Amino acid sequence: MKRRFAAFLLAGVLLCTPASAAVSTAQSQTIVRVGLAYDTTAMAAPQLQNVDGTGYDIGTMNGTSFSAATSVSQTRLTIKPQGTGLAVLDTDSGQVLYQTSGTTLAISPRGTLTWFNKYKYRGDFVYTRTGNAVTVVNYVGLEDYIKGVIPCEMSASWPKEALKAQAVCARSYADGQMDRHKSQGFDVCNSTHCQVYKGANSATANSDAAVDETQGKYIYENDKKVVGYFFSSDGGATESSVNVWGGNYAYLTGKVDPYENTAAASNGVWSVTLTAAEVQSKLQSAGYSIGTIQSVQVTKRTAVGNVNELTITDTSGKQVVLSKDKCRTALGLNSIRYTVNGLGSTQAVTSNSAASGLYINGTRANDGSLYAVSGNGTVSAIGSANGKTALTGTGTQTITTTTSGSQTTINTADPAATGASYTFSGTGWGHGVGMSQYGAKAMAEQGYIYDQILQFYFTGVTVK
Q1: Do 441 and 412 have their domain in common?
Q2: Burial class (CB in 10 A: 0-12, 13-18, 19+), 213
Q3: Any idea what the Cα angle at residue 137 is, between residues 135 and 139, rounded to 5°?
Q4: What is the pLDDT of residues 362-377, one digit of tens each?
Q5: Residue 360 maps to a domain
Q6: Is the pLDDT of residue 288 over 80?
Q7: Residue 75 predicted with pLDDT over 80
Q8: Read out DSSP for 355-418?
Q9: Where in the sequence is the domain holding 77, given as residue range(s)?
Q10: In this model, does residue 412 exceed pLDDT 60?
Q11: 222: how many CB neighbours lie within 10 A of its CB?
């Protein structure tokens, strides 16, 4: 949409000479409203400072069209609640330059870049008073917004084709998320809740070129724009949306990733050990009711081997069954691609592209080769060892097994082991749906171009 400027005398107290007309260069970019400071981050007295050029136009924003009421020549401004409305002050002298009884005003810098809260931004700013705090929203063209996102979400030093894939993802993601903060008066926020956006601070010639060379391009499925989900590292396989958030979308189908070099990813391989008490505390903080932890079991995996169900049992037999993305978020884990080792831990076996079988601590056992010795010396194949006692490195433990379809779960639990701890060892970082950023980097390094990268990670799509 186009921004149109017109002279408009705002009802309020003008403490400087009104501008006869607001002059600015019309822009053809779609405008994105980005929340920079809101709710708990709203500010008492936000400031602006010209990076280049001098002065500002002050007025109102009608939709996405700015209307000027006055102009000021100062370089540094402070906006703060005053009376029932808002006032604009010269930061250096404290002089009130403009005041309105309304709760909202807009400022359009005359230069290209403006400092706000340690970052440089393009575009205009809208301020809304809420009590004694001020919400700040950046009105910026879509392509300029994407230029502010790319180097925050992917290293600007990475291959350009990876950055171009990221640019198309980011543009497609933004297009599908424009109503996410509608109730708060803007389109998207500047955090990981939407996409990390820090204005022009981190932009480079390489990252800006990636945006320019893909300008206006989106991801389509059957000629319909789709959301371009992305994350850091898949650890070996992406995941279908239905197994993470629900919602079965063909273009978001999980697959084994032969390209990503997980070992080379800065966050590709991880391990965290939690005590039983820490597991209990994290579950309770997430809203689950559970007592002293007895066992933590991976009870279901997806077709590509990611955790799809995690069952935690307490000493009274009460269970919390985590599914989909809760297998990651409830315990604060890095991904859904992991194994669990420790007292009371189990692994699940799921058929996928490889043959199904029995896995203990992530390693496939030879069929028919695993046995348990009971307390009275009876030797049993593990499949029929339910209720038997096995001698392990941590003492005697009871063995239970369950089989569902092609999946067998082995559990060794010592009900008396109150000091148990569980080590979660995994690969990947993030929700696992859509494009792996480290995978995109690896594909670009192998000579693939951006649309080939996107067509691998998003099934059956076109880029146009």
Answers
A1: no
A2: middle
A3: 160
A4: 444 554 445 555 445 5
A5: yes
A6: yes
A7: yes
A8: PP-EEETTEEEPTT--EEE-TTS-EEEGGG-TT-EEEETTEEEEEEEEEETTEEEEEEE-TT-T
A9: 6-143
A10: no
A11: 10
**pLDDT single digits (tens) 6-53:** 333 333 333 333 333 333 333 578 999 999 999 999 999 999 999 987
Question: Residue 351 has what pLDDT?
Answer: 35
Residue 1 within any structural domain of the chain:
no
As a whole number of angstroms, the distance between CA 312 and CA 320 comes to: 5
Band (pLDDT 50/70/90 cuts) for residue 177 is confident
- Token digits for 293? 């932890």
Cβ contacts of 149 within 8 Å, gap of 6 or more: 170, 174, 195, 196, 197
**DSSP-based three-state secondary structure for 325:** coil
Judge whether 238 lies within some domain.
yes
The C-alpha atoms of residue 386 and residue 295 are separated, in whole angstroms, by 16
pLDDT the model gives residue 450? 99
For residue 381, count other CB atoms closer than 10 A to its CB: 11
Query: Are both 251 and 293 inside the same structural domain?
Result: no
DSSP state string for 99-130: EESSSEEEEEESSS-EEETTEEE-SEEEEEEE
d(CA 272, CA 429): 13
% of the chain at pLDDT higher than 90: 75
DSSP letter string over 69-86? Answer: EEEE--SEEEEEEETTEE
